[in-house]
Write a structure and sequence with these properties.
Order of helices and strands: HHEHEHEHEEHEHEHEHEHEEEHEEH
Helix content: 25-40%
């Protein structure tokens, strides 16, 4: 055999390695429909994370993404996008948020050849799947952070609509607090019992103010758009004063004594005071606590419980694009598969010391391997 023939055969025997983009170009383009919940694709939270995951899939996998943003008419009826997107030709429709469940189920019955997913709920139908999260696991971590950081031993939790989903956040947060500080107290309240509770920042601010009056120096907001009220309250009342604490309560420590303060903070919070913080949710909202536009000074966003909706959206698109067998039912995302985490960035780096970060890794492993069972209710 000639050397050139042997070389050609050797080349053919080599495994073919394709980049994600090259692989996408070998497969038919998938038409994806993304039906958002209220708030829009730039809500800095849940919807935005889903949109980012879909955009990443478009870049990496070459899929086509059509977006539907709901509107609410004068009678209070909110439009939903599952049926319009399927009608327009989407072979995979993803409804973001449990409010899209009913419309996804209806569209799934009407378009049995298409596939449908709901983020945060479990729809019925052989051509549907639920992309759900173990929010309690990420909430456990931020509860742990809150407990070791608190100057009073009193922590707050402001939920949006009083529904089982948000109970998971509260349960995990409380468990994380109690894990490291059994004597600490968690005050919890919800902005309402109807969907309007997700967009009532004034009510959330009132609840946060009441919690601060009871000595809560750190408040976790799992309240959708209402969470802005908690952020606003903390950025306005940036510290608790010893003179304003409930009778019999005293500061137990100052975990952030060495963190530089802004001049505005020093002017408002002199004397015997301790800083106040919020904990964000869904996406990294730490930057919202940077009231003086200087990450080097004390930030009032302690951390955020990040829910990786982007990873869940990307994974279901990737699986369908690659032709993996459809598995109806529930797909669960938690600490083990990068579904939830806590946010650490330049804004809160000074608030999460290396020793605490190391302990959080140990706690995460305890949860992943089942040594610590995190409650969901």
């Amino acid at each position: 055999m000639k050397s050139s023939s042997r070389l050609a055969l050797a080349f053919l025997a080599l495994p073919l390695v394709l980049t994600p983009l090259a692989l996408a170009q070998t497969l038919p383009a998938l038409n994806v429909g993304l039906a958002l919940d209220t708030g829009g694709k730039n809500d800095r939270s849940f919807n935005q994370s889903a949109w980012q995951g879909a955009q990443r899939a478009a870049r990496d996998l070459g899929v086509k993404v059509n977006l539907f943003e709901p509107t609410t008419d004068a009678k209070g009826v909110t439009s939903r996008g599952a049926e319009p997107l399927a009608k327009a030709g989407a072979s995979l429709v993803i409804g973001v948020g449990f409010a899209n469940k009913d419309s996804v189920e209806a569209a799934a019955r009407q378009y049995p050849a298409s596939r449908f997913a709901v983020v945060d709920d479990l729809p019925a139908g052989d051509n549907t799947v639920g992309l759900r999260f173990r929010e309690q696991e990420g909430s456990f971590l931020v509860g742990y952070i809150a407990a070791v950081s608190s100057s009073t031993g009193v922590l707050g939790f402001v939920g949006g609509q009083d529904v089982p989903l948000i109970h998971k956040f509260q349960a995990g947060y409380t468990a994380g607090v109690k894990f490291v500080c059994p004597k600490c107290r968690v005050i919890a309240a919800y902005t309402g019992t109807t969907p309007k509770a997700w967009n009532d920042p004034a009510r959330a601010s009132q609840l946060a103010a009441g919690m601060q009056a009871q000595g809560a120096d750190i408040i976790f907001a799992a309240a959708g758009g209402s969470g802005a009220g908690v952020v606003s309250r903390v950025n306005t009342v940036q510290c608790l004063k010893a003179s304003g604490l409930p009778a019999g309560m005293k500061f137990v420590k100052d975990a952030f004594a060495g963190v530089p303060r802004s001049n505005a903070y020093k002017a408002a919070c002199g004397g015997d005071t301790r800083p106040a913080f919020f904990i964000g949710v869904d996406s990294d909202q730490n930057y919202l606590g940077d009231d003086d536009q200087n990450p080097a000074t004390l930030n009032h966003g302690l951390t955020s419980m990040v829910k990786r909706v982007d990873n869940a959206v990307y994974s279901i698109i990737r699986d369908v694009q690659k032709g993996k067998p459809w598995r109806r039912g529930d797909q669960s995302f938690g600490l083990q598969n990068d579904g939830v985490s806590y946010a650490l960035d330049t804004y809160n780096r000074a608030l999460i010391p290396a020793a605490l970060e190391a302990n959080l890794k140990k706690v995460q492993n305890l949860i992943v391997y089942g040594t610590v069972k995190v409650p969901s209710q």
